[in-house]
């Protein structure tokens, strides 16, 4: 049976690739964006199986309206993709509140509210959430700290959500992409306006890397979309999908680092409970 999808932020990038993969196999997709004009390319190719809806994840009313419209038009909503988001590059000290707070509004608070609003529909269909995290949601680096912190939050929210809703027949898939050839390092990534020379050798490297890599990332969004859609179909798919060899490499290095830290002081850090009082008989 064809599935019915709603994808936030699918005017380009991985969101658009997921939409096209689902549509190509006969599914129905509610395409959403803040500017619906950016959805015309996909909608024109699949006029009978798409809806183009305005949705701004920072405005709960627009999210609720899009969900209601999609569920009514399709009869049910089977897959909800939390894809809307963007990044800010800069050292923690360089990124201003105006820059990082809006990123949190979109990447974290917007995802929370969209998830809460979509839950009744997905409970009715025994559907699936696809939450777009990042390889940087587990393993960060200098210059990516505040962006990564939003994706660390997505990981925690999604992990808890999976435990809460699985008994209700709802699945969660966390997608952790590495560097894919989308506009993420272009339109979807901003650079902190403040630059402090003391961070040139650390966070400054991320500014340079983002400029040099934009448009030449090794990851293929089409191949990523095929893996994501396959995971939606497969009840036995894992909770986490690290996409790309760089994501696998960086996440493994992070896990090795954590294991080494635990082992280094394990005898001290584990022995912090109250000592058991000896009971005399």
Automatic annotation (TrEMBL):
<dbReference type="Pfam" id="PF00106">
    <property type="entry name" value="adh_short"/>
</dbReference>
<keyword id="KW-0560">Oxidoreductase</keyword>
<dbReference type="InterPro" id="IPR002347">
    <property type="entry name" value="SDR_fam"/>
</dbReference>
<comment type="similarity">
    <text>Belongs to the short-chain dehydrogenases/reductases (SDR) family.</text>
</comment>
<dbReference type="InterPro" id="IPR036291">
    <property type="entry name" value="NAD(P)-bd_dom_sf"/>
</dbReference>
<dbReference type="InterPro" id="IPR051911">
    <property type="entry name" value="SDR_oxidoreductase"/>
</dbReference>
<protein>
    <submittedName>
        <fullName>Oxidoreductase</fullName>
    </submittedName>
</protein>
<dbReference type="InterPro" id="IPR020904">
    <property type="entry name" value="Sc_DH/Rdtase_CS"/>
</dbReference>
